[in-house]
Amino acid sequence: MDRGLKDKVVLITGGGGGIARGIERAFATEGVRFILTDLFPGGLEAAKEELERDFGSEVFTVIADGSKEDEVRAAVDAGAEHFGGIDVLINNAQASASGLTLVQHSEEDFDLAVRSGLYATFFYMKHAYPYLKKSAGSVINFASGAGIGGNPGQSSYAAAKEGIRGMSRVAASEWGPDDINVNIVCPIVMTKALEEWREREPEMYEKNMKAIPLGRFGDAEKDVGRVCVFLASSDASFVTGDTIMVQGGSGMKP
Asked: Mean pLDDT in the chain?
C-alpha cells in the first residue's frame, strides 16, 4: 500500500538505538530519506550502514547531544540543508536510571531523564518547527506506559515521558493551523537495555510484565515501526493530539 512517504525526509533522534533501528527499517520500506541523530557514533554508523545495505536508503547522520540546544539546532539545520527540508520528526531518544526507586534517585539521576527526554524533545520540536510548517509535516513523540501506569522503579523516566505527553498535546493544538499533526506513541519493546534491566531487577521486571495484557513485549519494527509509519502517512493526516499505546503487541498495526 502506498502511504505517500516516498522521498519524504524523516528525522529520528537516538537513531542508533534498539527501538529506533526497528522504526527505521519500517520506514525504509516506504522509500523515505533519513536524518539520524545520536550521542553515540558507533550505533549511528551501524544504523546508516544497515539501511544503505538492506534498502538502499539515503541516510544523513549527525552526532548531537539532545540536552544541549545549540547542538540540536545545528543538527536540525544541517539535516534540513542536506535534504532540502524535514517532513517527519520522531523523538525517540531517552536515557534514565530505571530500576531505582523514587527515594533512591539522586538529583543527577532525575536530571538525566528530564534532560535527555523532555528537554531534547522540546529542543528538536522547537528547531524543526519552521521546516515542518513548510512541509505540513508530522511529529511523533515517544512517551511510555511507565508514566500512565506508574511502573515501579521508573519515577524519573515516567516524569519525563508524561512531560512529553503534555507538551505534545499543547503542540498539537498550537500547530494544527499549520497542518502539522503531533502524536504520542507509548511502546513496550524488548531491547538490549530492557534485557539488562531484567537481569538487574527481576522482581520489578515481573511486576511490569504482569501489567501487559498479552503478556509479551512488542516488536520494534512490526509493531512500533508500522504504527509510526501510519501516523506519518497521509492516511493519518487528520489524527493529532492522540496517545497510541503499543504494549504487548496490542497497539494499532496498520
From this structure: 91
